[in-house]
Fold this protein.
Amino acid sequence: MFDNIDINQAAMMLTALIFAVTIHEVAHGSAAYMLGDDTAKQAGRLTLNPLKHIDLIGSVFIPIGLLISGSPVIFGYAKPVPVNFARINNSKKGITLVASAGVVVNLCFAVICGFFFKIMYKFEPAWSQTFFNLVLVDLFYFFFYSVIINSVLAVFNLIPIPPLDGSRIVSVFLPPFLGRIYARIERFGILIIFLLLITNLLDKILLFFINPITNALLGI
C-alpha cells in the first residue's frame, strides 16, 4: 500500500495522519461537550490546533517506524481528550455517541477526501501541466493518504480492545459485573495491540475491512 514513496509523499502522509488523529480527538471532546461534559473544553482540547493533540510517540515515531519497516498499514494516535463519562447526559446512549464520534468523523472525512481525489485523478492531465503543479501534487497525495489513514483509524478504533473506542461501545451493552471485568483488560490493552502488531495479525484484521472501503472511496 505504501511502496516506493518519496519524501514529499511521506510528508503528506504524516500531515494526513496528524490531521486525522486531531479531528478524531476533537470529535470525542465535542460530542462530550454537547452531551453535558465540558472537561475537554476546559482543558483547551476543542481546537484543531494539532499541537494541542499530538503525542510524540503515537503521532510521529510509531507511524514513521511503521513506514520505515514496510508495514502495509500506517496508523497512529493522539493524546486522548479527557472525558468524564459520569457527566454525560443519557449515560449509555451518550457514552456510545461519544465513543463513536471519532470513528464517524474519520469516515466522513475519508469520504470527502475520496470525492476530491477522484476529481483530481480524473483531471490530472489538465492540472499536472499548470504553474501550480507542485502544490496540486501535494494536495493530490494528501487526499489519497487521508482516505487510507482515516479509514485505518476508523476501523482500528472499532476493535473492542480497551481502551479503543470499540471497547467503550461494547461495555455499554454488558451487564455491570462483566463490564467491570472487561474494563480491567485496559491495563493490558496496549500490550495486546502490540502483540497483534508484531505478529502481523493486526495488519490482516485491518486490511480485511480497510481494502474494500479504500477501494470504493478511491475508485482505483
